[in-house]
């Protein structure tokens, strides 16, 4: 693989209700849809493929860990956006009255790995984190 070929990410996750999931990922987050059935829906998650599978007994289960004084869901997924994209998404989510697990804020301010972050759940209780780094070279800073 060449240096400028970035692999695309694929994630399948359980949901309790496909109609609510479609509404949230399409209408609130702005994800286009791909193939679907009565058991699953493909979403274009900023160029990556995420697939919501109907599995009510598995949806939204996660323990919590302490990170920077906040209870963070151990099981979550999301994206690292550009700072301006992150700000726009935070505003969009606030306007949609999304309930945040962790409100948008800047974590590790002034330290290596400084980042804007926010956590929220989809209608099935699956946790998502969206973040942005002031300096992308510090994504893996220690």
Describe what you observe in this structure.
This is VOC domain-containing protein. InterPro entries: Glyas_Bleomycin-R_OHBP_Dase (IPR029068), Glyas_Fos-R_dOase_dom (IPR004360), VOC_core (IPR037523). Pfam families: Glyoxalase. Residues 7-133 form the VOC domain. The structure is a single chain. The strands form 3 sheets. This protein has a 4-stranded mixed beta sheet with strand order 1-4-3-2, with helices on one face. It is globular. The chain has one domain (10-138): 2,3-Dihydroxybiphenyl 1,2-Dioxygenase, domain 1 (Roll). A hairpin with a 2-residue loop joins strand 5 and strand 6 (70-73). It is built from 2 helices and 10 strands; from the N terminus they run E-H-E-E-E-E-E-E-H-E-E-E. With 142 residues, it is an alpha+beta fold. The longest helix has 13 residues, at 83-95. 17% of the residues lie in helices and 42% in strands.
> Average pLDDT across residues?
92
What is the end-to-end distance?
A: 28 Å
| CATH fold topology | 2,3-Dihydroxybiphenyl 1,2-Dioxygenase, domain 1
Low-confidence stretches: none
What structural class do the secondary elements suggest?
alpha+beta
CATH architecture assignment name: Roll
CATH class call: Alpha Beta
